[in-house]
Design a protein that fits this description.
By secondary structure, the protein is α+β, with helices and mostly antiparallel strands. It is 20% helix and 23% strand.
């Protein structure tokens, strides 16, 4: 199956420059409706379908749904997300890592502090992006995600990895809140209002943040899928997350894995290899 959505040179250039790019209308109405139904089912009994994430509580946070639920597995294997990501980041292939459902209910106080995802993944490499797809409208009131555009280039050039605690990697992510009104700050804050079916792809070193949901009526629901491209190698550190079902993560070797755990979803020379 060939993806119908057109990835443009502007998408590619924006991602390279900013470390984040929005893809408007990546999913059609059929995919949106199917996944909204699947999300409603999971929300009623999240522990049945996946692993509760560290931020579960004031918001819904569930991981590895694709391993347990046919709709989430179909989304990973058959939707446009893998090919779109591969074409944006210039990967030769795209391998599945894990999925993570986030839903902030109305008036949720849950704040996601500034952080970079690379810290948590048990790998190194630039081709370990996150594609975050909206399944409700997303706006300023209900807690849209904000990003620091271009910061990923600084991290790569300086060899920096910021942690979630002071003792991790190069320490805590900088306090970007203090830079919002700084005219000398060398980077830009970017954010996107989104409609269901829109998606954002962002680099593993791109800092991002979201405030609580101030809406009295509208949840903010998105599904993040974390993917690996061809430059990703195992990187073991005590603060990096383990992958259920993966015992051998040989330091510095290119990521490989069984099709039931780390399947290849897309190859540039064979668009549906592994499906």
């Amino acid at each position: 199956m060939t993806m119908q959505y057109a990835i443009t040179q502007d998408h590619i250039d924006t991602y390279a420059r900013d470390g984040v790019v929005v893809l408007r209308g990546l999913l059609d109405a059929e995919w949106v409706a199917r996944m909204q139904g699947a999300i409603a089912r999971v929300s009623a009994d999240p522990g049945r379908y996946g692993m509760l994430g560290p931020s579960n509580g004031a918001m819904l946070s569930v991981c590895y749904l694709w391993r347990n639920d046919p709709d989430f597995r179909a989304f990973v294997m058959d939707s446009p997300i893998a090919e779109a990501t591969g074409r944006v980041i210039g990967a030769d292939h795209i391998r599945m890592y894990h999925d993570h459902l986030f839903s902030k209910p109305p008036l949720s106080p849950s704040v996601m502090p500034w952080h970079c995802d690379e810290t948590a993944w048990p790998v190194s490499g630039e081709m370990a992006p996150n594609i975050w797809t909206a399944f409700t409208p997303v706006n300023e009131e209900n807690g849209r995600i904000e990003y620091v555009a271009g910061w990923h280039q600084h991290c790569v050039e300086e060899g920096l990895t910021f942690g979630f605690r002071p003792d991790q990697a190069d320490g805590l992510c900088p306090n970007f809140e203090a830079e919002r009104d700084n005219p000398d700050f060398a980077f830009r804050f970017v954010t996107f209002d989104m409609e269901p079916g829109d998606a954002v792809i962002f680099h593993p070193h791109t800092p991002h943040f979201s405030k609580g949901n101030d809406s009295p009526a509208l949840a903010r629901t998105g599904l993040a899928v974390r993917l690996f491209g061809h430059d990703v190698r195992w990187r073991n550190a005590p603060y990096k997350a383990a992958i259920p079902g993966v015992e051998a993560m040989p330091e510095g070797e290119l990521v490989d894995g069984a099709q039931d755990v780390l399947p290849i979803l897309w190859r540039r020379d064979d668009l549906r290899a592994g499906a």
